Amino acid sequence: MTTPFLADAEAIRDDIIAIRRDLHMHPELGFQEVRTARLIADKLDGLGYDVIAGVGKTGVVGLLSGAQPGERTVLLRFDMDALPIQEENDVPYRSQTPGIMHACGHDAHVAVGIGVATVLAKHRDLFPGAIKLMFQPAEEGLGGAMSMIDDGVLKGPDVDIALGLHVASMLPLGQVVVRSGALLAAADKLEIVVRGRGGHAAHPDQTIDAVAVASHIVVALQTIVARNLDPEQPGVVTVGSIHAGEAGNVISETAIMRGSIRSFSPEVRDLLHRRIREVATGVAIALGAQADVTITLGVDPTVNAVAPTEVVYQAAAAVLGEENINTTYRTMGGEDFSAVLARVPGNFFFLGARNDQQGLNYPHHNPRFDIDESCLSAGVAILCDAAVRCLNGEGVGAG
Ligand SMILES: [Zn+2]
Ligand SMILES: [Zn+2]
Prior knowledge:
Blueprint: H1 5-11, H2 13-25, H3 34-46, E1 50-55, E2 59-65, E3 68-79, H4 106-122, E4 128-136, H5 144-150, E5 161-172, E6 176-177, E7 181-184, E8 186-195, E9 199-200, H6 210-228, E10 235-244, E11 250-251, E12 254-263, H7 266-286, E13 290-299, E14 302-304, H8 306-320, E15 325-326, H9 338-341, E16 346-354, H10 375-391
Parallel strand pairs: 3-4, 3-5, 5-16, 6-15
Antiparallel strand pairs: 1-2, 2-4, 6-16, 7-14, 8-12, 8-13, 9-11, 10-12
Helix pairs in contact: 1-10, 2-4, 4-10, 6-7, 8-10
């Protein structure tokens, strides 16, 4: 099985890489993607798309109708934002903006998106219905997907199937992860404020030591995943920061702990939240203190529907070969495309971008993160192939 889109994607390989490098040199934080959005809008406009800018603040939507009549609309989503990280790569295309870096690969996503836009514009004859491109701001914890949804990105024309991808430095070049069910986790924020009674380090009997209480809470929280959770079900409770006290000779009155809670299923999510509250407040009471627990809901799990996932699998098989498709990997990372997939069936897949020989294997969000750009044309081809299949009637049905 082959696909015509791989040759098309390879033919514009250098252009896609040039766009990625330009964006990499000019990274912009969430909801500040002004230059990026203008570049996208100009390209889409030049390709004949109907362009709407300023969707969900800095988002851009591009709409292209196929040459044949059809009711279906397929949305393809690409995020645009960078991170507040100082780049440590010594490459010609390194970030020109101090303290800001494309350390998650969203520059690559935009480049793939423009590649997809270019190839599909050339092949309007191959599909009915419409392609809707969603260039999204602020994926990194700022709610860019919801902001575009609130602005109507899934309406007029209504989206039937949504597809997206993420480059992956943990996955070797030439491979993809395509699976149904939860691919990424729900990621909720945890804050625990411990209140004791401060005093002199020499007179602990006259105090309630918030540091000692917080320490017990951290240890007790570990028992939730170890002892309360079904061993077959993944879950994470991380305390990432504790702030308490200023001096070694003072017993601290308060301690503030912050953390992250990860889960794939609503049942596990509820269990973790309930047990965190019980354990933290219970331990604090036992030690004479008080713990106030605040859990702020973050992104939902990113859940892939069966039928669109089968389409992406077929597209990936045509581009990279079935032997290069991993159908089991998933990660406790979070992704706000989950907000789209909670409303519309679709698929989000990982595109391998790791190259150990070239040292392109640092984790996402690392100051030395980079990708093997050879992955980009495969990403373009898979998305084009899958989108056209969906417009031609595949990707719906049970699941
Ligand atoms: Zn990221
Ligand atoms: Zn990302």
